[in-house]
Amino acid sequence: MKLRSVAIALLVLVAVSFTWGQSSEARVRRIILSTQHLGAHGMGYNTRSLWQLSKRLTPDDIPVLLSLGGRNSGIAVGAQFGLASQCGSAVVPVRDAAVQHKLMSLDAEDTLLLISEFEGCSPEVRSEASAAKAEIHRILEEEHQRTQQEAKQKDDNDSRIQANGLKLLDPEKAKTLTREERLEIYHRSLAAIGLKEDGPMTPDQKKLVDRMYRSMVLGEVKTPPNE
C-alpha cells in the first residue's frame, strides 16, 4: 500500500512538472506577444517592449527564452527582446548558448547589442554585454579558422595518401614508401570500401582484407587485391 502511494505521488509530480513546463512556455509566449507594437514595418518590438518585458518577465524565464530564441518558434525576435530585458542575468547565459551553438551567433550578438543599448540596464551591465558580444565574435572566428585549418589538413593528407597509393603501381616507386605510409594507404582503402580492420566481416571480406594487407603493407602480393 505504501509503495502504491509513493508511485501515485511520483506520477502526480511528473504530471505537475510537465504541465508547469508547458504553461511556463505558454505564459512567456503570451507575454512576448503582448509587447508587440505597431511600427513602420508592422507589428514588432522596440524600446517600449523592453521596458514592458523587464517588468513582466524574471530571470527564471531565461531558459524558456533561450529555448524560444534558439529554434524556429515564430517569436525568436521577441525572445531576444525578452532576454535583453533581463539585463545582467541574461549576459552569461546568452554568451554560453552561442558558444555551445544552442543559439545562433548573430541572434546572440543582436541580443547582447540590445542589452548594451537598453537604458534599463546599468552602465556596468551594458559594458559587460558589449564585452560578451566581442568575445562571442572572437571565439567563433577562432573556431571557424580552426575548422578551416583542419579541413585543409585533411584534404592535404588525403591528397598525399592518394599520391602514395599510385606509387604502389610502380615497383620502383613502391620501394620508397615507409611502412607508415603503406599503412595509411591500406586504412584509406579499407575505409573506401566501408570496412574496418577490427569490424565485422564475412569470410570473403576477410580474405580480401588479408590480401590487401599483404599487398599494400607487406608488398608480398604483386597483383591487385581484386584480381
- Overall structural class, as computed from helix and strand content, comes to mainly alpha
Shape: elongated
Q: Helical stretch count? A: 10
- Measured between the Cα atoms of the first and last residue, the distance is 73 Å
Strand content: under 5%
Q: Helix share of residues?
A: over 70%
Q: Main β-sheet: number of strands, strand sense, barrel status?
A: 2 strands, antiparallel
| Gyration radius, rounded | 30 Å
Topology as a string of helices (H) and strands (E): HEEHHHHHHHHH
Number of strands: 2
Which whole number gives the mean pLDDT? 85
Q: Could you give the order of strands across the largest sheet?
A: 1-2
Q: Give the count of structural domains.
A: 2
Instruction: Report low-confidence residues grouped into runs of 5 or more.
Output: 3-22
